[in-house]
Structures are given as C-alpha cells and as structure tokens.
What does this fold into?
Amino acid sequence: MSIRSRLSSMPLRFKLVLVSITVEIVMLGLLLGNSLRLMNDAVKYHAETLVENVSPLLDNTLSPYMFERDYVSIQAVIDKLVEEKKSDLNYIIVLDESGKVYASSGWDLQSSMPKIDTSFESALNDERYDTSTHLQLGGQDAGQVLYGVSLANMIHARSNLLQQGLFIASIEVFLTILLLSIAGYLLTRHIFSLVRATRQVAEGDYSTKVKKPANDEIGQLADNFNTMTAAVQHRIEELNTIQRALTDEKERILVTLNSIGDGVITTDVDGRVELLNPVAEKLTGWSNEKARGLPLEEVFKIKNEVTGRPVQNPVMKTLETGGTVGLANHTVLVQPDGTEFPIEDSAAPIRDAGGEIIGVILVFHDVSSTRQMARQMAYQAKHDPLTGLVNRCEFELRVNEALLTAKSESRHHSLFYIDLDQFKIVNDTCGHFAGDELLKQLTTRLKSKIRDSDTLARLGGDEFGVLLENCDLSQAEVIAENLRKYIKEFRFEWDDKLFEISASIGVVPVTSESIGMAEALSAADVACYIAKEKGRDRIHIQVAGDEEHALRRSELQLVSDISLALEEGRFSLHFQKINSTRTGAAEAPFYELLVRMQGQDQQLIPAYKFISAAERFQLMQQIDRWVVTEALIFMKTNNHVLGNARFAINLSGQSINSTEFHKFLVAEIKQSTLNPKRICFEITETAAISNLKNASQLISDLKKLGCMFSLDDFGSGLSSFAYLKNLHVDYLKIDGGFIKDMLNNQADASMVEAIHQIGHVLGLKTIAEYVENKSIQEAVENIGVDYVQGYGIHKPEPLTNLAKQYSNQTDLSVKN
It folds into this structure.
C-alpha cells in the first residue's frame, strides 16, 4: 500500500497529530541546527581569539631566547605553556631559521610534523587547530613556532548542549503527541459519531439522528446532519410514492401498449430497441426479448414497395431533426422470413422534463386492407361500376394527355362519341336490369374490336367515348364504320324478346390544332348529335369548314349562355296584349307572358333565338320553372291593382312530360292563393301531340284547379284535328304561319276560317297571332276570330311596365 493511500485511510485524529508533530519536529530540527551553527561559530571564535593572543605571546617570549640560543629557557617556556590547562595548547614546536626542530613540547618528534589547518572546519575532525607563527626580533627572522590549539573542551561542551537539546525536544514531542492525541480525541469523537451515523444512512436507515454535543461547529454540523437526514427521509418517501405511481403508470402504459391495435417500438437515443408491444412483435416477427438492445434497422426493415430500395429509418431521422417524422407512401415492412406487407408509421421524439431527447417512439400499423381499398377506390374513381370501362373523368384525362402529345410531338389521334339509338326502347320495354345487361354485353364485344392501346369509356347512360391514339382521321373513319356495323349486327335477347341496336357516332380529329380537351369532347358530342339528327345509325366526321357542325357548336355556346344566365338571373318577363274582337264586351284584360334573356353584352335575346337550343339540351324545364315562379310572384305582388287580368304562360314539351314538373306546378298555384281562372297555360300543338298522355293528364289536373289552357301554333301538324277532341283546352291559337300570309294566300285564309269554325263547334275560343297590321286584324275579325295578338296590336314590353300602368290607372281613378 502506498504512503498516499495509507494517509488517506488514516483516521482524522491521527492525521491531526501527525501533521502537528511533523511541524514541531521540523521546527525543533531547525532550532537545533541553528544552535549547532551558533556553537560552531563560538568554537571558531574562541580558537581564533586564542590564536590571536598566543601568537604575539610566543613571538615576544621566544624571539629573544632564539637569538640567544637559550634552549633551556625556550624549553621551560613551552613546557609550561603546554602543561597549563587553561592555555588549551596541545603542543608547541620551535623551529630555527633553517626549519629544523630546535625545541618541542607535547609532540612526538618521531611522528611526522603536524599539518597546518587552512580552515577552522578542517580542525574539527581532530578537535585541534594546527597553526604556526614566525619569530622575529628587530625585523629579523629568528625562527618559527608550530603549535596546536585544543578544541576538545569546546566541542565536548557543544556535544553536551546538543544532547540536552535533543532530550528536551524529545520530551516536548512526546508531550505534544500526548496532548494532541487527547485534544484530537476530544475534538473528533463527535465526528466519529457523525461518521457512524452517515454509515447507517448509507445502509438505508434514514431515521438515524445524531445527538448534539455542544453549540460549537460540531453541534451545528449535527443539527445540519439531522435536518439533512430528515429532508432525505422525506424526499425518499416522496420518491417512493412517485416510484409507486410511476410503476402503476408504467403498468397502465404497458397494458395500453399491449391493447392498442398499432405496433409500437421505443428506442434509446442511439436508435436501439427498448420495447416492442405485442402488435409490433407480430408485425416485425421479433419477440421483445430478442429485439431489446438491437439496432432498429435490424428489427424494423423497411423498403419502398415500388423500387424495392431500403427506406431511411424514421427513428434516426427523428433523432437528427428533433421532430415528428412519417414514412412516405408505398413503404413495406419485411419480416425475417421475407414476408412483406405495406405499413404506415410515424416516429416522434421522447423528451425529458428539460426538453432533452431521451428516445424515440415509433407507431405503425398494417395498411394492407387500406391499400387494397384505396386501390379499389382509385379503380372505381376511374371506371364505370356497371361495365368496368373507363369513366368520363378518366377518359377526359386521357384525352387531355393525347392532346399534349399531339401538340408537343405532332401526333394524330381520333376521338369517337357513340350514342346508342334504341337503348331507351329496351329500358322502357324490359326495365333497367335489361338495359344494364345490354350495356355489359355490348361493351364486352366492343372492347374486342379496338386495340389495347385505345380507350373505350362509358360517358354516361348509353353514351360511349373511344380514343384512338396514333390514328389519323382516314383510319378512324374505317374503325368507326366497323363499330357501327358491329353494333347494328348485335342482337340483344331478353325474356324471349329480341332487340336490334344501332348507334350514332361522331368522329373528330385530335391534332396539334385542337384547342383543348373540353372543346374536343364537345366537338365529338356535336358530331354525334348531327349523326343522330340525320337519321341515326350513321357516323358524322367533323372536318374543316363543316357548317352544320359550326351551327351545332353555336347552339352549344348558346346553351352555355343560357345556363349562365339562369345562374346570374339574367332572364326577364315581357307581356303582350291579347285583345278581344268583340267591341263593347266587358272582358278582363288578357296578356301573354314572354321570356327574354339578357346576353352578356346586355342586349335582350328573344325566345325564338334560344328556345330551340334549350329544348335540345334539356334546359327548358329550368326556364319554365323560373317563368312560372316569377309570373305567379308578379301576379300575387300586384294583385291589388291587376284586378281580374288574365295571363297566359307558355310550357315546353319537356315540362309537360315531367311528373316532377306537374307536382311543382300544382304546388306553386296552390301556394300562390291566386284565382286559377286568371292563369292560362299555353302548350304547342307539337308538344301536346308528342306527349299526348302526359299533356292530357296535366290539362286535366290543372283544369280541376280552375286553370285555363290554350293550344298554341294549332294547324302546324297534319294530325291536329284528329287529336283536338282528346285535348280539353279552352283556346285555340291559330298558327301564325297561316295568319301573316292570309291576305295573299287563299289557302291560308281558308285554313284560318276552318280552324276557327272547328274551334267554335268544339266550344273553343280562337286566337289569331302574328296580326301585324290593321288589314290582317280586319280579315280575322270578319272571319269571327275571338282574339287577336301581334305587333299590329301591341309590341311586347317589360312586365314591370304593366304594373306601373295599372298603378297609374288606380291613382287616376282615385283622383277622379
């Protein structure tokens, strides 16, 4: 054991004694050394003083005798000096001028002559200071004296003094050790009590107390120790409470981790696994015991599902960034046996109370079913659920991509728009299940007639689209004709019924000159519509300068304007008077309500310019709803000034054929609380005959409420008279084509008269429209027509003017 380790393990009291004794011994040593130095200096001084005194004495005493050669006197003098104890001379040797011994005393001449000491220190070895002096008399050299000064007495005195000093120092050291030991014990015994107490505390006995010995520092230390142990005991109790709470919380967390459906892995700050919950064990293929302490990359192996390349560990990324990290899509987890399945996960740092990261928690779960569902939903989002064909949304994307390649690479593609001609017959005859089966059988066969690189899509109902990539218009025409023939040859059988199907196909090129996807689809739709208008079961190819196509496209643009006008409220009502030809007859005023559309250039567009497009593209029912609603609101709002004024409201064939519109019309009339006899609905002869059953039902239902009906444009159809008896209307409005030319065409005049007479026979009142001048008015009045209407009678005005006119009349009558 080294001295340092021995000192470190030595009791404190011994250390105090050792330090004190060491200091005292050092100081005593210094004191004795200094005393020894002083004694040596005293001996030296005594010897030097003696030499200084003896040399002159010998010179003065012996010089005369030497000149006289008085041997006896010289011998007597030196003997006396040597024998004299007080003189401290050990020997005297007298040499003559030649250096020979002349006389001596106290020295054995048989031995060699003494060596003269050159320093005082050299004389200490033999306790004698050897020196010499010259004998001179009258300035002449008489000889030389060698003599030795004894230092024995002084050295002996010095030794006695040193021994006494050492003895006294030893007694002093002993007494110091004794006193310091007693004092050390008295001072450190309470410290030992504290040491024992700290040992007990170290062993876990925090109830240990130290008795306070006094009010000195040791007492204060005892008080502080007792306070400390009490605080420690209290803190330990708190920590035990916290530990129990943490243990309970840990158990709850473990129960939670073991219960949740997600896999959970926790790691330390080095990315090594600390815990896997049961789900994580199942998903990774590792047990918690085997995985603990391993790098996460070894347990949690992930890669990109598409590329197969390893994916960066999210835990290490979290440790680098300090933030929450989620895996990218298409990530799969690989088990030790090679099993793979897609997962989603996120990693978040675990921080201590100071905000320092102490680990990472990784949460992940199997998304196999979710991915499958997502793929299924993605497929469903792009495909028609009935036929499995690409749907309109996906078809538009592919058309757009084809347009991009056409523009960037100057490619030529072709686009078909196919509409089945007899699909509605199958649906109406055999029901929707039969219609669905027809679509599925037909699309299965159509797919076999196009290339794999081409796209066949169901655009809705019985409408299909075909995109032929890298196919110019000449090739597309051949393919379109083949498809038309194939559809024509197809026979659909359902419940012993055999149906023949045909299709109208519109074909448009998709080239670098094409404007955009919407325009291309719209052009194909228009081409298909033209093919259908030309008699169905045919194709129509859009080519440059196609006037018919341009006309249909303008209608499409008009349809867009109509829809926008409906959204922006740019429709308005005008009125035109219908005058009775019977003068003096007291009849309520009669007006026809006419709809107008305000264009984006703020110009009013008459109905005849947009009604045809609205009917063709199924917008008339929306317009009719708006007209009915606005007309009834006007009549109800101004009911107090309008009196019994009657209004004729036009209805389209689409509205007549709609059961929902029937319900809407009845509900609006009842809700208005107006007198239904003031409301007359006009339907055209063509619309009534085309929808005879629905028209008859509508007329019957509204007449039950009290409404009136007028048959517009009567006489335009060849079978008008045959159907007239089945339509219980109140007015016949003679077709304006007969009226405006009756003055110049006797046949037209005869038709007007015949219609009027038949109407009267059936109890109906007649109305002549297109009465443009006074001559025509007189002609129809001569025939007996009941009412006249036209620009010669009254030009249409905004309906708001009528309200003002009646208000002014009311104000005038009040004043009168």
